Each structure stands twice: as C-alpha cells, then as structure tokens.
C-alpha cells in the first residue's frame, strides 16, 4: 500500500463518486479503480459498494476512511514538528563537560568567541559523568564534550583530541583524622575508603585509582557512587576520600581539605569520528584554544607544548 492509493481512496470516500474523483484529480477512472482494487486485495476487505447509480463506503471502508483521515492529519502534524526540530538542531550546538569542573574560567570566553563566529547558533551546555558524556556523544545528544581520556573507551566511533594534562588532588574531610596530620602523605591513606563516580566500565576507573596508589605501596578499597555530587557528599561527611581534578568546584569548600599530587590526566575534546560538520570542528578548535589561554598560568595544567 502506498500514499497514492490512500489519496485515491480518501478522495473517492469523500466524493462517493469515481467519476467526480477522476475529474478532480485529472486521472482516468480505470487507473483509480485499479489502485482501489489493489488496496482492497492487500487489506483483504471490500472498501466500496459500487453500482451504476451510486458509490458507498462499506462498514470496513468507513473504518479505514476514519483511520486514514486521522493518519494523514497526524502525519502532517508530526512532519511539521520534525522540520522544526531539525531546524533547531541545525541552529544549536550542544556541548558537554565532565561534572564537577569549575567552568567559570573557560565557558564565558568560549561562549563569546563561538557567538562571534556563529552568531545565529544557540549554545546548550550539559554536565555529566564520563559514562553519560560518552553515551550522549555517541547518540548525538551532544555534539562534542570535554572529558578525561583515560576514562573513555578507545572506540573507533570516538575522535579524542588530547589538549593538555591536568593535575590531580586527593580530597578528604576537614573533620577527618587525616586533617590532624600536618603534612599528610599518600601512605597515610592506605586504610581509607576511596570513593569514585561510576563509569562506562567501573573496572576502567578501578585500574586508574589503583595506578595512582600503586607507587605508594598499597591497593585501595574503592566504592563506586552514582555521580560527582555523591562522591563529594561522602568526602564532606568523612565517609571516604577521593581523587579529583585540581579545578573542581568543591576544592575550596571549607569542609574539604586536599593534597596536591604529582599525578595528571589527559584532558580530551571528544566528538564522533564520522561527524564532519565544519561547525563542530570549529567549535572544538575554539574550545581547545580558550582552555589553553585560560589555564596558561595555572600550575596544575600544561599543554603538550609546555611539557
């Protein structure tokens, strides 16, 4: 069954006349009759009573007349909505960042410079964990994202551009026993519970946390929680300690202490490999440039050129 057959059926059902429909559509009457017959054969029911005097819809025909009338109206409505959504997508850029990062140093400048290049594009921002960011980029809910490379799968679908290294800190409660140590060292935390947000594969994060602790001679006990906010809640309430990036927003909280570490992770701008839109490439380049400029004097960040 095709749209032409449905259009012929609806026209005959409205006019109750093959002759009038033929004249109205500028199509021969036998051609219309043929398509109606094919439609009846496919549906397995007779759609019209037809004699020399009049044409009427059968009971089954009335049922399909109502159904296809609603279908045509609903399809038109859905098509209009789809066109509006597509137009909105073309005029928006959806950018994701790893949750917990303090974006005040880069986001205002990135927003301003992007609008200078693309004045008609609306920028939409989302913050999520590594797992959600990766899924959103792959599904198209995000056009690009800034995340940590070591927590991502090395999938062919991903295009990861490493833009620099950010140092880590170890955060612990200001009410914990570790806060009583004047200059704590990593070895002091060998019995602590290390809290981490869940990832695409928790084993990836487990290996990363273990690699941070291995040089200090211990294997940490690790607890996975839903997101960064939950991790910080654990730390604030002396329920665990956590590794985090140096530019997270919670680092200046009065109830959190932190220890700077000589450990760093690659920061990466992530897109979908098959996405060749010039808008995305330009936005990724701008984000890299703005980040490098904003963090040029930060002691916890370095580009690969400055290593």
What features would you describe in this structure?
With 307 residues, the chain is α/β, with parallel strands linked by helices. It has 2 domains: 86 residues, Arc Repressor Mutant, subunit A, CATH 1.10.10.10; 215 residues, D-Maltodextrin-Binding Protein, domain 2, CATH 3.40.190. It contains 9 helices and 11 strands. The strands form 3 sheets. Strands 3, 4, 5, 6, 9, 10 and 11 form a 7-stranded mixed β-sheet that branches. A two-stranded antiparallel sheet has the order 1-2. A hairpin with a 4-residue loop joins strand 1 and strand 2. Helix 1 packs across helix 4 and helix 5 packs antiparallel against helix 9. The model has no long low-confidence stretch (mean pLDDT 88).
Spell out the key features of this protein.
307 residues, alpha/beta, 2 domains, seven-stranded mixed β-sheet, 41% helix, 24% strand
Overview in brief:
This protein has 307 residues and is an alpha/beta fold. It folds into 2 domains: 3-88, Arc Repressor Mutant, subunit A (Orthogonal Bundle), CATH 1.10.10; 92-306, D-Maltodextrin-Binding Protein, domain 2, CATH 3.40.190.290. Helices cover 41% and strands 24% of the residues.
> Which outline best applies?
elongated
Cα Rg: 31 Å
The CATH topology of the largest domain is D-Maltodextrin-Binding Protein, domain 2
Structural class: alpha/beta
Helix content: 40-55%
- The count of domains is 2
């Amino acid at each position: 069954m095709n749209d032409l057959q449905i259009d012929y059926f609806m026209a005959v059902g409205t006019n109750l006349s093959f002759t009038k429909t033929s004249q109205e559509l500028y199509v021969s009457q036998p051609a219309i009759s043929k398509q109606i017959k094919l439609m009846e054969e496919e549906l397995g029911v007779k759609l019209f009573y037809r004699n020399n005097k009049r044409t009427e819809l059968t009971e089954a025909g009335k049922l399909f007349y109502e159904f296809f009338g609603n279908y045509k109206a609903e399809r038109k409505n859905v098509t209009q909505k789809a066109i509006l959504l597509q137009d909105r997508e073309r005029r928006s850029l959806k950018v994701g960042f790893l949750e917990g990062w303090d974006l005040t140093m880069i986001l205002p400048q990135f927003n301003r410079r992007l609008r200078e290049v693309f004045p008609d594009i609306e920028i939409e921002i989302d913050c999520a964990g590594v797992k959600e960011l990766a899924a959103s980029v792959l599904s198209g809910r995000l056009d690009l994202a800034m995340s940590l490379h070591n927590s991502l799968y090395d999938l062919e679908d991903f295009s990861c551009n490493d833009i620099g290294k950010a140092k880590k800190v170890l955060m612990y409660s200001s009410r914990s026993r570790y806060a009583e140590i004047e200059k704590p060292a990593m070895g002091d935390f060998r019995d602590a519970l290390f809290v981490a947000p869940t990832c695409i594969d928790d084993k990836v994060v487990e290996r990363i946390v273990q690699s941070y602790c291995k040089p200090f001679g211990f294997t940490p006990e690790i607890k996975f929680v839903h997101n960064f906010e939950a991790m910080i809640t654990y730390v604030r309430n002396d329920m665990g300690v956590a590794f985090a990036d140096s530019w997270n927003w919670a680092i200046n909280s009065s109830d959190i202490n932190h220890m700077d570490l000589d450990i760093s992770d690659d920061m990466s701008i992530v897109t979908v490999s098959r996405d060749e839109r010039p808008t995305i490439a330009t936005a990724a380049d701008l984000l890299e440039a703005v980040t490098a400029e904003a963090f040029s004097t930060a002691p916890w960040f370095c580009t690969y050129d400055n290593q």
